[in-house]
Amino acid sequence: MIIIMKPDAREPEIQEVISELHDNDLKEVRMDGAERVVLAVLGDDRVLVRAKINSLSGVDRVMEVLEPYKLASREHKPEGSRIKLNGFSIGGEEIIVMAGPCSVESEEQLDRIAGEVKAAGAKILRGGAFKWRTSPHEFQGLGLDGLRIIKRVKEKHGLLSATEVLDPRQVEAVAQYSDILQIGTVSMQNYPLLKEAGKSKMPVILKRGKWATYKEYLLAAEYIMAEGNENVILCERGIRTFVNETRHTMDINAIPYLKEKTHLPIVADPSHATGKRSLVAAVAKASIAAGADGILIETHYDPTQAATDADQTISTENFATLMSDLRKIAAAVGRTL
User: Fold this and answer.
1) Beta-sheet pairing, 89-90 with 83-84
2) Are 38 and 91 members of one domain?
3) Do 152 and 227 fall within a single domain?
4) What is the DSSP letter of 322?
5) Does 73 map to a domain?
6) Digit-coded pLDDT (tens) for 232-252
7) Per the domain annotation, does 164 fall within a domain?
8) Which residues of the chain have pLDDT under 70?
9) Phi, psi dihedral angles at 175 (to 5 degrees)
């Protein structure tokens, strides 16, 4: 259930509605918009007497939300969300590109890549300080030192940054150094991590799990939003199928489908979806044509020497060429890049 207050509703009237919810053992998530306050009701709202809620002064109307993901549902916010960042937003007409190495290896490495991706038009620097690896003996990232490098480099080049957080205990530290928290595919249903990211109120890129259905994916986003954080950006990054010629199978369907079901913006990660640098450009173009609000690209000035994910990393030279092509695709679908 969504309770929409009147534009001129006063604070005592809003608190009266909240008290009614609490009396029925329900929780609210309050969203203060530019024109009015909206209350999303969490819990078994069948106990509420709709007529009573509608009769409370200050209430404009009550909306039923049929989907289990009430806060993420398009019914909750038909116009769509724009995640505001410093100087731009994700979810509007402009397509935002995030680029950088899979892993931060050194300050010199990240500094060079940051300069080259910014020159090509990227607005967000991506790079991992903490890395999940299949083998415990492989490079796991530079940790806190990596976070410090990210902060120095992104500030030097006037970029924002996005980096992955693996554990609830890392959220506070990552939030101090980066502008966007990224929750990877293996963590999509790490509910303590989702809740902690929600409490942070930081923008969050939530990647779809390898085997997750759309419903499971949106319910994972709901965990973040239920903590009062609406700054969620979905990321389609490919799923596991019977195909083994590529790392995963890019689910292009997910982009337009999720646009129908949720107000949250969605970006695409063709690097992880394909696992092959020769395929990244084509899938990036297809993602924009399908309606993606942004693209994540793994890039390095010497991809073959990248510490992690070398096979799917494109060169910064090829990244610049790709950006030129992506601008043409964006223009063709009525958007900018």
Assistant:
1) antiparallel
2) no
3) yes
4) H
5) no
6) 999 999 999 999 999 999 999
7) yes
8) 132-134, 137, 140
9) -65, -25
